[in-house]
User: Fold these one by one.
Assistant:
Number 1:
Amino acid sequence: MAGSKHINLICVIATVLAVLVTVLFMNGEALGIEVIVDADAESYTGSEVFTENDLDGAWDDSSATQITLNGTDAQVSGSGAYVLNGSVYISNAGRYVVSGTLTNGQIVVDAYQSSKVWVELAGADITCEEDAAFRVNQADKVFLTLKEGTVNSLTSGETYSDTALSDNAGGTIFSHDDLTINGSGTLTVTANYKHGIDANDSLVITGGNITVTAVDDGLHANDSVRLTNTELTIDAGDDAIHCDTEIIVESGEIQIPSCHEGLEAPQITVTGGNITIYSEDDGFNANGVGGSGFGFITGNEADGTVESIDSRISISGGNITIISENARDSDGLDSNGDIYISGGRVLVSLSNSGTNSAIDYASESGGVCVITGGTVIACGSYSMAEHFDSSSTQASALYNFSAGAEAGTTFALEDADGKVLLSWEVPCSFSSVNVSSPDMQVGENYTVVIGDQTEEITLTEVSASYGDVQSTGFGGGFNQGGGMQMRGPGGRGGFGNTGSTDSSADSTDTSRGTMPTPPELPEGMEGMTPPELPEGMEGMTPPELPEGMEEGERPELPALPGEASQMTADTTAATETASSGTALSSFGADTWMELGTSAVILILGIGIAMLYQRRR
């Protein structure tokens, strides 16, 4: 009976504690409580490019489950894995070491959705004729580690089974979830059916000496491809590295002896590393749609959602070399949006044929190619050559010449004192050079050296164009003509036809700002309706709904981007001032709604308790 006398109090205390716990979980950070997160969880939305576990390729395997492959069978010593029909299945979270040879079977990770699984290849040679040699059916994240000092091999057959095809398996390594490859050992991946490594989610590689040979893509992922501290060699029938979202290269050695395209994704970011690409088509291809925020629409097959991705190439470090001997209609750096170069060294060599462009961006739809640092020598055909945008802070020069130069010709740029600032023996023939260096300054004189031919130029602006012939592509510079000086007697010979472009020609030939009709559309946008809609919104029903907001509030809604930023800052400042240091004032509407719901539950609980006590 004593317990029943205090049931009301017990219910009140329990409910109040439940409400407090709810508040703490929902607003822990606002109340100063440190939140512990799992950076390797699929649901994690932090900004880390590489986690601690991604970078840990030398974890302790002494207590791991040992899996020994024996031709057509395998033995398991430890828990969490079993053998079935010549394949090994890993069913639980944990750490596993695989060694030996499997002539026609798989390593299959099929664990819980929340499982983290570490698999170390310690001298493993696995071939699977009709499916992926290493497959991840389900896990939260899998770490495939290449043990130091070991040589490993994964091979798939030419034809996949109906079961594998129905699961959209596309790689010798195939994963439905996030996959990390790390360690310092050696791995050879041979894909006779499709891709070398295929990940539905993110693919991270942070170590190892990896060679991939694939009839389709070398690396293929949906969410992201992130590379650092590895050595990759890729021979691919299609893209060497392909992602539906973004590719990030932080460091390492990436050698691509053959491919159709080198790196392809809506967004490509390189902050370091050495990348050499021999391609049949584009070297880098940011394959979004349009510039200035038009974006690339990509779909997620798993949940049916879509998102808009801006198309962009960003280079802030590293050494990038792109060579395409048969590049008739291909480009070196190709972005359907913008290109930003702030560091590193970029060398591009395309053959002097067709309509290729060493640097190509969406200038016709508002895209920009901006250089603020780094070194660039980009050689190809003059027909579609584009210069850097005038908003660049580092000087550059686009030099087009009709005579052209043979493969193996040396290009150099000398300053007024004869000091060589840049030099490269260009692998392919070329008739255009786009060059930029931190040593180049507006107003200074320079000498362009191509083989035994020379030309003196004066940089008259941050993004200047020279030569005896102009580009015809959108955004390509219009050559100044008439302003170039040859060396005097005793110097090396000048280029032919240097006077063919007369400075007195019409504005189409001499003005950098004047372009053919298509490029003029983004400048004025005179005939376009969309910019007029936000002003009146005359024919649209939604703006008529908030009638009460016409007094002083409605004019603030269609704010410009700069004003929106200021409005956000002002609103944030006002909120912080109003809070007066009280954490509860930072609770959002959802929090107060849930607190209200908890209060209702509290009242109901007390009522039920009182009714129960009366009946007793």
Number 2:
Amino acid sequence: MQKEFRKLVTINHAKRIIESLDIKAGISEVNIMDASGLILAEDVFSNVDVPPFDRASMDGFAVRASDTFKAREDRPVALKLAGSILPGINPDIKIDDGEAAEIATGAVMPEGADAVVMVEYTRIGKEVLILRPVSINENVMHAGADIMAGERLLKRGTSLGPREIGLIAASGRRTVKVKRLKVGLISTGNELVRPGDELQPGQIYDINSFSIGSAVKECGGEPMYFGIIKDERKELEKALKKAAEVCDIILTSGSTSAGTGDMMYRIIGDNGALLAHGIDIKPGKPAIIGRVFGKPVFGLPGYPASSLTIFNEFIAPVIRKATGKKKEWLKVQAKLASRIRTDGRSQLLPVGLVRGLAYPVDKGSGAITTLSEADGFIEIPSDIEMIEVGEGVEVTLFGEIETPELLFVGSHCLGLDVLADVAGLNMRVINTGSSGGLSAIRSGSADIAGVHLLDESGEYNLPFLERFGIKNAVLVKGYLREQGLIIRKDSGIKGFEDILNVRFINRNSGSGTRVLVDLKLKEIAAVKGISFEDLTSSIDGYHTEAKTHSAVAAAVKLGKAEAGVGIRTVAELNGLDFIKIADEEYDFVIPQELLESREISILLKALRGKEFTEKMPHGLRTYKRTGEIIPGYGEVRK
């Protein structure tokens, strides 16, 4: 029986519930080799003096300083050589008046010596000639000068990094007490497999164990992995009980919704307390807070972006507070680059931040790249229905932002990655599709846009500059992408017209590929003497749309369709056959004012170069028009 969500709790209510759980870290003694990234649970005092003896801080000669006071380059002082001292030994040498001992950096100072003359201020013969005087204690580090025995080196609560670990090692300690919050991680779902295993139809790789585990470490917690558990109640209960026995808190992902296959909330309620099921937030609504088998438990949504968002907003602060791992979320002001509509729910919207503009990066909560491509997020209250372009927003940053040399907005392509590498440019890519790229050029918020839009006239890209009202920009011809039928190797399909007799998967309306398909079908309809509408209505799957080339390939690969149209590169990456039907023109739109800039000049040189042509993936190729500059709408054509 399907159960609805309980009443959604607000963000603030959810945080109050979490605070009431009173989560605290334990204390463990660990080897300093394993302590990096952890938080000290004690003050650390030194057991020894550092250095533990008077030592030379330069290569040279140990002397009595008074013997050198009259030394000059033109009148050196001659001293008798009493021996040589290497590091690691306690020398049986005593320096008397008029004597010197050769000494290496770090070696124990001999009895009677109170200074070291650097080797470059000496000449060696039968005696040592001192060319310049030294003062008492010059080039000597005395015992305890760095650290004194009993001195406090680090305070409790210090985050241990390379410098701190080195300091503890110098004090002679091999172990140290640290705060440890053991966090159990359980991924649920019949469809999940471990990265590295072969994917079967309907399966996906487990992302959350690794992304959330890394986030736990970053917050000072210690992730403990309990693997992938199938959606079976007994197995889930067994895993939760095992985790509760050894962990301080438990994080699960998946099985948190209210569907027939989602049972986590039932298990928690039956074996503890279900404190909240559903938070009034997007993404991440189906989140769970509770106790199970005596330990706090948080049920994260299965979708990676939702899971990480809920973790960052609600759980990361708890782990940091418990472990003492401090982190200040840096907030910056920006202007919104595109309009946002909300659905009346509080929202944490990931954004990419470039040159003061915040670009929404929202591929859906199921996309892990939603957060990997974002620089931070903006918090949208539930009473805000729309934010317009240009409105000021506050962005909470995930970390440091790298300033790009070029900002690319538009339709991403594998060839673009090659071009950026060949050019050696740091190019930030915001994937918005061709239309989004043209809009960014029009608003002046992008340096370059990638487009591959086919007009019904059969011309690529140029007509759309006028359609979008883009002035003072040029079209730079890029490269060709082979478009064709994507089919299984055993399909028996020989040409485009065969799609009339098989199960087809189409591309989304407005895409260049969809326009190409329709142009080809109109040619067939004309030959057959029937209307375009009658022809398309007879095709099984004509109205079934896929938003990407990869989605077409996946549908064919999984047997949901026998054919679709896409680019050769995607077909081959998926082990499918390909029948070419046309070349798609992938071009660039660049503001006129940037055409002579250093970065664009470098990019265009790379585009026209031999190296780019040679490194293009199969199915993509340059041609005679590559790099040609065509004035756009409103430009003077020569």
Number 3:
Amino acid sequence: MKSLWSDEAAAAFNDDELGMRVYSSKLLGFDENLVMHGGGNTSVKATTEDFFGRTVEVLYVKGSGWDLKTIEKAGFSALKLQDTQMLAECATLSDPDMTQQLRALLLDPSAPSPSVEAILHATLPSKFIDHTHTDAIVTLSNNPQAARILKEVFPDCLILPYVMPGFILSKQVSDAIKRDDPKDYKGIILMHHGVFTYSDEAKVAYESMIELVSRAEAYITEYGSTLAATAEHDVDLLDLARIRNAVSLARGEAQLGVLDRSPDAQGYSMLETVADISSRGPITPDHVIRTKRIPVIIDTRPAKGVPEIDRYVTGYKQYFEENQTAQLQMLDPAPRVGIWRSAGSIAFGSSLRECSIISDIARHTRHAVQIGESIGGWQALPAEDIFALEYWVLEQAKLGKSTARKKQHQGKVAIVSGACSGIGNATCEALAAEGAVVVGLDINPEVVSQLGCDGTLGLECDLTNSKAIAVAVDHVISLYGGLDIVVCNAGIFKAGERIEEHTELTWNQILDINLTATQRLMTATIPYLKWGIAPSILIVGSRNYVAPGPGAAAYSVSKAGITQLARVAALELAADGIRVNIVHPDAVFDTALWTEETLARSAARYDISVEEYKTKNLLGKTITAANVGRLLSTMASDVFTATTGAQIPIDGGNDRVI
């Protein structure tokens, strides 16, 4: 490990001590081998002025919810230093009481909750305190011979056995430094947990961390191996959808199933010992909040129902029963990590962010486990210690149960065709706003730039090409693990050709895109929808299916055709739990079909203004693409859980239709 410290870069932060704290914290957070996803914490002791202008000594400590990689000054909570130090003198202090007292000591009551290790930071006498959960040192401390190895590698460090984070850990360190002056040591190693370094200078504290981690890496290089098993295999995506379905049912809500099929993930999954070495527990207890204690091991070709998930749920319930206390309520028993034989590692989560965190932890874990085995084996903490952290009241409060309304499509995967503009684009936005991961398909390459943020992804796809559709659908499954919602919206409109004048090109093109492309997309997605969560197919029809106009024969026939297609699909797919419903928009003028010239020409036919033409319906409403998108999103939700085969107009009321 190399120091990233730059005196020139540090000078830009050197306006005060907190500025230097921000700089060196970001250096630690930049390297995920030191700090991952909000883990680790840092602090600095300084002086500031209180509300009355008095100079007070404070501890600026990382606040909850902030990540060292991106932390700013606002991410550090200022605590009254001396009063925080006094908390370490308490004989006992419950963690809820500790949290309450720490909040009471904040100079700014609106500041983020301070780290649960704030008391520990306060008791260490140095100005700058750095704490990481570095892979290399944790790997050594998980060794059966950890006491000997750590004493050999870190003779100048204070080495302490594992205890629960929070007040218990703060008390342990406080008592230890009363016996041993921490300034006699380069750092403090906490078994199965991490390392603290400290100094009155930010650079020294940071570079001490780098040096200690480098020593651990050097020991691993000398006595072990950093080479990981690798393999490359094809994956059956329908099996992936089955697995994702089983995990979603176990958790009681839709889950993404993000597959890591990298060579090292597949190599790890093929190890003969993987069921043993991956199921001993997390490499550091903090990970249990994200990953559960152990992953689920899934056979190469899971059978219908994926019995491994059922066995995992049973095992988790037993783990809870063996370790619970009376006041605890069991969390959901579904796995967060799956080791899928020959295929790789799967992260299960309600959002892409959650899956990304789980995937990263799984990647670091498999590397650390294999390294640990190469230097004499690795062992996790006993299950009861992991349970204590998984059900720790402070961790539950930190990740907490949100009081916000649960989004209707959280954890679901949707495909929308014709997504580059108009109704398709608005539908993508509506579904994503309700928590779905949405993939928009369109022949227009601009769909890639139109989508691509806030849970959406754009793919260029020719919907008249069955192979292109199959490739796109398979790509979606490979990214997210399954499929729940399909919106068939792609279509074109050409008017002005009477039947006797219809060209073969116009007729074939309109029917191919509006009707046959819908059938192609349904055919490609139905096998995956059968394993979806509350799966739904939505067809965007048109008022023309029931109230056609002259000069639009091909368009009207195509919309009548997909209406009939949807009705048959509703009959065929109900037994599989797939709902099929249709919306019939009309006069949606904020789409690419309607230009200013087209609107003016149409309004002139009725001798009214454009604005009057836009509201020429019974309710006098202007219909927008967003109106249609929100309706489609609602129809895909549980609000319509008992509805299939329905045809719903969204046209402001049309007397010809009614």
